[in-house]
Amino acid sequence: MKKWMIILLFTILLIFTIVKTKIIHYSSQAYFPITFLASYAIYRIIWVSKAKPGKISLFLLFIIGSLLSIILASIPFIARHINWIEPYIGDEFGRQALKAHVEWAGWESLVGIGYFILFATGIVLFARKKTRLNGIITVFVTGVIGLQLTLYIFTAKIEAYSQKAAIDFFIARQHEDCYVAVWGYKSYAQLFYTQKQPPTDTTIINDGDMIFRKHIPKPVYIVAKVSDRDAINEFIKDQGFYQVERENGFVFLKKEAGR
Question: Are 46 and 136 in contact (CB under 8 A)?
């Protein structure tokens, strides 16, 4: 079983390295072999061999926990001083996205600080033979609490930088009889947040098919990123679109019905 889990893990890592579209669906299967191998290692240390964890393992575990702590503690501070990092961002979309209005109070850094204190305590307990099991429990509980706090406090704020402008635009189209498509990047957001219904015209595979058609029966909206200038200019110049909005790195184009 251990051998198969190692093979599975490296297969997933290899495939994920090759594919260009990096989404969680491709890597989530790695959770199973990683969890199995971690559980197997803990089982061997605590219940079978009673051996002391290797110094390298403890060191690497400490480094990983420290990096996570630093990231969690730094994000709120950096977010309140975006102008410090803006000159180092080469991507135009990234620079525009970081201009989104997101409220950071500063206390969010306490998540990272608290995570480090508890995680380091767990490592110390894990290194000692008499408190090894308590150390494992402390590390796991710290991970669970840290993950939940991160999802609750950080995720919505970070999402505001990456796609909130586009999401708000999609939601605003829910009650409008129109086609909505994205261009230059892959997303399912336009399908979910517009509450898209099955098309009555079976010749239409997706809303993107309507971009290049003539005499369309209803308005077409395109959401693109500012960095895709050539496509945006082509839509405006040759396809009859015009810009209706531009926000946080996204450009929203529209073509009226009948054109």
Answer: yes
Return the DSSP state at 103.
Answer: -
pLDDT tens figures, 62-119: 999 999 999 999 999 988 888 888 888 878 888 888 888 888 988 999 999 999 999 9
Question: Could you tell me where the beta strands, DSSP code E, fall in 167-249?
Answer: 179-183, 220-225, 242-247
Only one residue has tokens 């909130």, namely 164
At residue 17, the pLDDT reads 85
pLDDT of residue 208: 65
Q: How far is CA 97 from CA 127, 173, 193, in A?
A: 44, 21, 20
Q: Which two tokens stand for residue 196?
A: 């898209």
| The two structure tokens encoding residue 1 | 């079983």
99: tokens are: 């201009």
Query: How sure is the predictor about 223, in pLDDT bands with cuts at 50, 70 and 90?
Result: very high
Rg (CA), the chain: 24
pLDDT at residue 172, rounded to an integer: 94
What pTM does this model have?
0.74
CA gap 142, 119 in Å, rounded: 6
Ranges assigned E (strand) in the chain: 179-183, 220-225, 242-247, 250-255
Burial class (CB in 10 A: 0-12, 13-18, 19+), 34: middle
Instruction: Give the span between the Cα atoms of 202 and 51, in whole angstroms.
Output: 65
Contacts of 143 (CB under 8 A, 6+ apart): 119
- Two structure tokens written together for 33: 């072999």
